[in-house]
Model the fold of this input.
Amino acid sequence: RFGSNIRRELALKEYGNACSICKISRADHLKKYSQDLSVIHINGDLTDNSSENLKPFCKSCSNKITKVKT
Done:
């Protein structure tokens, strides 16, 4: 779990602490949704923690991504 927190924070930092699609900031997302940005494994492989596979999404964009995958 500790390692996953580091990878999560690195992914958020790489994208400027903002959603990788709409660019809402982490702080604004917390105010709007009362929760942090999600960091999602793009390829669906939860063991692939490469920086290319981890991207932050806001609640709205995350819902759109999830709907496209199903």
The beta strands are 38-41, 54-57.
